[in-house]
């Protein structure tokens, strides 16, 4: 992979999350950080994708595994990959050590489903500071923002009955 192809691949990942897992695998498999002058996947991820929340557990697992290959610890991974708690990072470390492929790694007490999600997704933009505050609060309680948001929506609609 040359520098131009690597730039295009990273740009495509940043701007188009429709096929994020395939793009992440392509970046990892082709070492698309090297033509750009990065020493590791971790360095490129931190520079180009910091704060981006991946839509699927499998995509997060691919990134976490690559970060472990770059020498990161579970504590570091939990601070780098949005949506990955410390317990999730530890569980992914265990799965990786056991030889479990990322698309089948266990995280947050469940098996990652390699099939596309069939449930509708609700999207609402909130200010970054509020997002970060909610994310930190969820992590403090060993949860994720997604889980807590789903619980809040469910509770609200139950109250509307």
Overview of the molecule:
With 161 residues, the protein is an all-alpha fold. The protein has two domains: 116 residues, no CATH class; 43 residues. It is built from eight helices and two strands. It has a two-stranded antiparallel ribbon. Strand 1 and strand 2 form a beta hairpin. Helix 2 runs parallel beside helix 4. The N and C termini lie far apart (56 Å). About 6% of the residues have low confidence.
List the helices and strands and how they pair.
Elements: H1 3-15, H2 20-30, H3 41-48, H4 57-69, H5 74-80, H6 86-97, E1 106-107, E2 110-111, H7 128-140, H8 145-160
Antiparallel strand pairs: 1-2
Helix pairs in contact: 1-2, 2-4, 4-6, 5-6
What labels would you give this structure?
161 residues, mainly alpha, two-stranded antiparallel sheet, 8 helices, 2 strands, globular
List low-confidence stretches. Answer: 109-117
Biggest sheet features: 2 strands, antiparallel
Global mean pLDDT: 81
Number of domains: 2
Give the fraction of residues assigned to helices.
Answer: 55-70%
Short synopsis of the structure:
A hairpin with a 2-residue loop joins strand 1 and strand 2. Helices cover 58% and strands 2% of the residues.
């Amino acid at each position: 992979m040359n520098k131009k192809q690597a730039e295009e691949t990273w740009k495509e990942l940043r701007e188009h999350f429709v096929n994020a897992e395939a793009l992440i695998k392509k970046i990892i498999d082709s070492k698309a950080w090297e033509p750009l002058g990065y020493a590791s996947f971790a360095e490129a991820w931190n520079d180009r994708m910091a704060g981006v929340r991946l839509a699927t557990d499998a995509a997060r697992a691919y990134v976490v595994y690559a970060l472990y290959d770059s020498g990161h610890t579970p504590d570091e991974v939990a601070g780098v990959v949005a949506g990955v708690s410390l317990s999730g990072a530890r569980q992914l470390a265990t799965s990786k050590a056991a030889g479990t492929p990322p698309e089948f790694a266990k995280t947050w007490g469940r098996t990652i489903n390699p099939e596309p999600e069939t449930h509708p997704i609700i999207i609402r933009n909130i200010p970054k500071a509020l997002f970060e505050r909610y994310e930190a609060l969820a992590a403090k309680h060993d949860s994720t923002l997604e889980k807590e948001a789903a619980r809040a929506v469910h509770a609200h609609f139950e109250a509307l009955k």
